[in-house]
Amino acid sequence: MGVDDPLLPTPNRPERNPGRAAEAGLVGGMAVQWSWACRKVQSASCLELEENPSAPPMPGDLALVRLDTMGFHKHLTTCENRRLRLYAGVQFIGVFGNRYASDAFEAEVQGTDNLSLLTGAGMIGTVKSKYDAMADPSHVSLIGFVRGPEGRRLNLKDVLFRPTGERRLPAKLIYIVGTSMNSGKTTTAARLIRGLSDLGLNVVACKLTGSVSNHDPDEMAAAAARKVTDFSDFGFASTYLARKEELLELFYAMMAEVSTVSPDVVLMEFADGLLQRETTMLLSEPEIQKAANGVVLAASDALPAMQFDAPVAVVHSCTGGSCAVPLTTCQRSILPSTLTADWQTPPVPTPSDMVPAVPPLLNTK
Predict the structure, then answer these.
(1) Considering the domain boundaries, does residue 351 fall inside one?
(2) DSSP string spanning 116-131?
(3) Which of 25, 139, 196, 205 is the S-S candidate for 225 at Cβ 3.0 to 4.6 Å?
(4) pTM above 0.85, yes or no
(5) Rg (CA), the chain
(6) Is 332 helix (H, G, I), strand (E, B) or coil?
(7) Domain housing 152
């Protein structure tokens, strides 16, 4: 079974108002919305609720929540990838997860008393801090945890994540990293997908780390990627605070999945900036470095780009010809000079290639 296959059977839908914006499933006998984050485990069966929790929430736990007060998120993306306007009192199935977004919220799974909607795809948790210019989060309250047909609490990672013993790697693997959140990583990925696809190459795109959202996979799919997958397909509502061993297993599980379509090129995006916990942790691993044929850096402005000794890229395709990839965005996309030559000899990135040196002015040690 691939990550594109639904894990549980398609629901038998109850009669409802045909004017409703999205499909609803049944939980505890109530018709509720399933968020996009929970799309892989949506079930027709009348699932039961654990209304008196016997244990605190864990990342990946599914829960039925009620929107109490409206904040930043005013819409919910449903399991059918439809954008549903939210109103106070609306109930939906979300998933507990941790989030670190420098332009949004820092949040963790910390009990059930102070819950907020962390992403429009349905991730929930407790906000610890937020970006100063960010609006307050939309607050939700727990109605109950969702139990599966066997009576246990449903957890996305428990259901979907299957580490593989395979260590398959594609012939051409390119990492896309950024100097910060909103530096243009997904825009760069989409331009590369489009340009390489126009050359007739079989391009696959994936996102290894981040917080669950339909936005980036949709952008990559729209650019004509043959296959698109991300961490949420493997049961991770978020990769923030995940263990290194888990992330490495996720990497290889993702590589095994994308290898099924025999891609010519795989583009892999890493969330946030180079100094973000999971990105730094992964890119410092020798096996992650050796797996890559090159690295693309998306820089929000000139200053962070100056930390890298690399030219503005003119990418050459796997067929040996010049690839006219339209990287005309407000960001600057940079590749190591080794990528401007033939791809037959993959360069081995090092931490110093991937993580900018701390400027002396900022080094207080």
Answers:
(1) yes
(2) EE-STTSEEEEEEEE-
(3) 205
(4) no
(5) 21
(6) strand
(7) 24-156
Residue type, position 173, single letter:
L
The residues, ordered by sequence, that sit 6+ positions from 16 with a Cβ below 8 Å of its Cβ are 24, 31
Q: Considering Cα of 41, then 47, then 51, then 54, what sign does the dihedral take?
A: negative
CA neighbours closer than 13 Å in the CB half-sphere of residue 328: 2
Q: Do 347 and 210 fall into the same domain?
A: yes
What sign does the CA torsion over 60, 66, 70, 74 have?
positive
Looking at the structure, tell me whether residues 128 and 247 fall in a common domain: no
- What six digits make up the tokens of 300? 């929000």
d(CA 164, CA 174) in angstroms, rounded, equals 21
Q: What share of the chain is helix, strand, coil (3-state, %, to 5)?
A: 20, 25, 50
Q: From first to last of the 365 residues of the chain, give the pLDDT tens digit.
A: 555 555 444 433 333 333 232 345 555 556 689 999 999 987 645 678 998 888 999 999 999 999 999 999 999 999 999 999 999 999 999 999 999 998 999 999 999 999 999 999 999 999 999 999 999 999 999 999 999 888 899 999 999 999 998 899 999 999 999 988 998 999 999 999 999 999 999 999 999 999 999 999 999 999 999 999 999 999 999 999 999 999 999 999 999 999 999 999 999 999 999 889 999 999 999 999 999 998 888 887 777 666 665 443 422 223 333 333 333 332 333 333 333 333 333 343 444 444 444 333 333 33
Does residue 328 share a domain with residue 273? yes
- Which residues have C-beta within 8 Å of that of residue 190, sequence separation ≥ 6? 219, 220, 222, 223
